[in-house]
Amino acid sequence: MFEQANLGEPRNALGDWVLRGGIAVAFVLFGAEKFQSDPGSPWVKLFQQIGAGQWFRYFTGVVEVLGGVLVLIPWTATAGLALLACTMAAAVLILVFVIGRPADSIFAGVFFVALAAFWWNRRRR
After folding, report:
1. Which of the two ends of the chain, N or C, has the fewest CB atoms closer than 10 A to its terminal CB?
2. Is the pTM here over 0.70, yes or no?
3. Are 51 and 24 in contact (CB under 8 A)?
4. Which residues are CB-neighbours of 37 under 8 A, at least 6 positions away?
């Protein structure tokens, strides 16, 4: 989990920081949106359709914010990327098999592939 601390500098440190910063901002914002309890919120409606209860919405928000923060810290970036990739994979599975809207899973699937590719690229350094 902390193997990044022993590696040398990435080939392009600025590019690495920009990508990790973008991932962090996106997931902190997406996660923070899930804490709004407005009954008209699309997140409240979506998690009602999932049927696991609203606690699952809060849990998902915490996981996304935590993953975003972990991605920012160089020695925990691998753990953050893994956490976020697992979250996006679970989102794809829930959208396809629980809610029955496979077309809606494309966004989460693209995020999953991008996170996995970024992790794979960082792993080889």
Report:
1. N
2. yes
3. no
4. 44, 54
H or E stretch including 88?
helix 77-93
With 0-12 / 13-18 / 19 or more C-beta atoms within 10 angstroms meaning exposed / middle / buried, residue 27 is buried
Q: How far apart are the first and last CA of the chain?
A: 15
Contacts of 83 (CB under 8 A, 6+ apart): 63, 66, 67, 70
Q: How far apart are CA 68 and CA 88, in angstroms?
A: 13
Whether residue 80 contacts residue 69, with contact meaning beta carbons closer than 8 Å, is answered with: yes
Per the CB < 8 A criterion, the answer to whether 60 and 46 are in contact is: no
Q: What is the dihedral of CA 11, 122, 81, 73, to 10 degrees?
A: -40
Q: Round to whole Å and give the CA distance between 84 and 68.
A: 8
The identity of residue 98, as a single letter, is: V
CB 23 within 8 A of CB 110: no
What letter would DSSP give residue 7?
S
pLDDT tens profile 30-81: 999 999 888 888 899 999 999 988 899 999 999 999 999 999 998 999 999 9
